[in-house]
């Protein structure tokens, strides 16, 4: 069932749960993520990034497919646009049934980040769309997830107040596109930001975080947990195994098993996160 992101996140905050937010690249990803959520009996978010839109050369086809998969699910599913840097792409997405958007101006100077993010938040809120943003390093050099960069709790509080966003992605030790799960998170910093900022916190680059690290992050105050690379690795490993048969040419014979293996890992991760039980989303 297609549900607003706000409803899923609100239920997570109220119950102390995590929200699994997994990236969609092909239709098989959307099917796997929803199948995994159904197996776990929890809500989930499907995410489509601007990089993915560029890959497909268009937003609407994959977005509408993801929305259709979400609508047919037996558990609550929201569809989210991830790391969107283009304001026109936000506007295009608003014409569909998206539940939320992560607008990323983190590489801009602080004042410009605040200005444009505030405008995007105002536009989205007028259309019932929940907004996540990312606070970049002041000066806008490398973005919030560059090695060694950490979110300052005081700046985070000021940024949320100035922009009016509904959630904040924070830099606490994770990094995008990691293929090993050995990132060292700063749980004290997560707790400090959580006590300072009055909106849910988001962990990007969660593929590099161990199961125990993910559990502790949620306990410390993270609500939304973004995972992409780890699931792509699971999917690709299965495809690679299947293509060991040189006679295999039917794409369903390797994409299907990869989809199923990914679904199993999604279900497992949702258990690790203590994800939102389907029945708690109103």
TrEMBL record:
A Pfam family hit: F_bP_aldolase
Superkingdom of origin organism: Bacteria
CDD domains for this protein: TBP_aldolase_IIB
Cofactors: Zn(2+)
Protein name as catalogued: Class II fructose-bisphosphate aldolase
Lineage: Bacteria, Bacillati, Actinomycetota, Actinomycetes, Pseudonocardiales
């Amino acid at each position: 069932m297609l549900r607003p992101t706000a409803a899923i996140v609100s239920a997570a905050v109220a119950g102390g749960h995590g929200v699994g937010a997994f990236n969609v690249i092909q239709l098989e990803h959307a099917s796997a993520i929803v199948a995994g959520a159904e197996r776990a009996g929890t809500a989930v978010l499907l995410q489509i990034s601007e990089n993915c839109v560029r890959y497909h050369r268009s937003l609407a086809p994959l977005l509408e497919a993801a929305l259709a998969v979400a609508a047919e699910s037996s558990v609550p599913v929201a569809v989210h646009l991830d790391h969107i840097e283009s304001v026109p792409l936000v506007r295009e997405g608003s014409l569909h049934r998206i539940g939320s958007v992560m607008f990323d101006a983190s590489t801009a100077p602080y004042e410009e980040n605040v200005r444009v993010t505030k405008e995007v938040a105002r536009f989205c809120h007028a259309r019932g769309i929940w907004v996540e943003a990312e606070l970049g390093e002041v000066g806008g050099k490398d973005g919030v997830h560059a090695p060694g960069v950490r979110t300052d709790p005081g700046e985070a509080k000021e940024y949320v107040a100035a922009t009016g966003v509904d959630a904040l992605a924070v830099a606490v030790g994770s990094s995008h596109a990691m293929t090993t799960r050995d990132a060292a998170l700063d749980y004290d910093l997560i707790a400090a930001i959580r006590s300072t900022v009055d909106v849910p916190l988001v962990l990007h680059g969660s593929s590099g975080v161990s199961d125990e690290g993910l559990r502790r992050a949620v306990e410390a105050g993270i609500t939304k947990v973004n995972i992409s690379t780890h699931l792509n690795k699971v999917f690709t490993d299965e495809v690679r195994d299947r293509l060991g048969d040189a006679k295999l040419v039917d794409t369903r014979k390797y994409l299907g098993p990869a989809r199923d293996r990914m679904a199993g890992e999604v279900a497992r991760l949702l258990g690790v996160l203590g994800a939102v039980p389907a029945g708690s989303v109103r």
